[in-house]
Amino acid sequence: MMLETCVATGLKALRMKRLNQALLIISFIPFCWLAFMAIHELGHVVAGLLTGGSVNRVVIHPLALSRTDVSPNPSPLITAWAGPVIGVLLPVTIWSVFWKCKLPGDHLTRFFAGFCLIANGLYIGIGSLEKVGDAGEMVQHGTPIWMLWIFGIITVPLGFLTWHQLGPRFGWGESEDQVDATTALISVVLFAVLLLATTSLSPRI
Description:
Blueprint: H1 2-50, E1 55-59, E2 67-70, H2 76-100, H3 106-130, H4 133-140, H5 145-163, H6 181-201
Antiparallel strand pairs: 1-2
C-alpha cells in the first residue's frame, strides 16, 4: 500500500510538473512574439515623434506583421533603424535589471532578450536580401547593405548565446528545474493580456 501511494504521488507530481512546463512554453513563446513586435514598433514611434514626424498608424496584431506608418517622416533612416535598435536594447536592459537586482523571473526576461536579439537580427538580415520592410527603408535611404548584414551577424549569435544553458529553467535537460505553477500562471496572464490588447486595439492592416 505504501509503495502504491508513493507511486501515485510521484505520478501526480510529474503530471503537474509537465502541465506547468507546457503552460509556460505554450504561453510564453507567443507572448515573446507579440512583445517583440510591440517594442520594435515602439522604437519607430519614439523616433518618428522625436524627429518631428507624425505617427498615423501602428499595427501590432497577432494575425499580421507589425508596422508603423509615419507621415510626414522627416528622418526616415533614423525612424527605420530605431525599431530594431530599441527592439534589441530595451529587452536586454530589462533583463540586465532583473539579473543585477536578482529579481524573480530573470530567466523569463533573459529568454525574451535572446528572442528579440534573434528576431530583430533575422528580420534585418534576411530583409536586406529582398530589400523589404525596415531593411528596404534603410537601403533606400543610404545604409550600405553590409551594415544590415553586420547587424544580423552580431545580434543573432548573441541571442543564441543569451539562451545558452537556459533550458533547465524551463524544465528541459538532465538537470531540469521544477517549473512552478506561479511562473506558468504569470506567463499565461501576460500572454492573455497582451493578446487581448493587440486584438482589440490594433488594426490588422
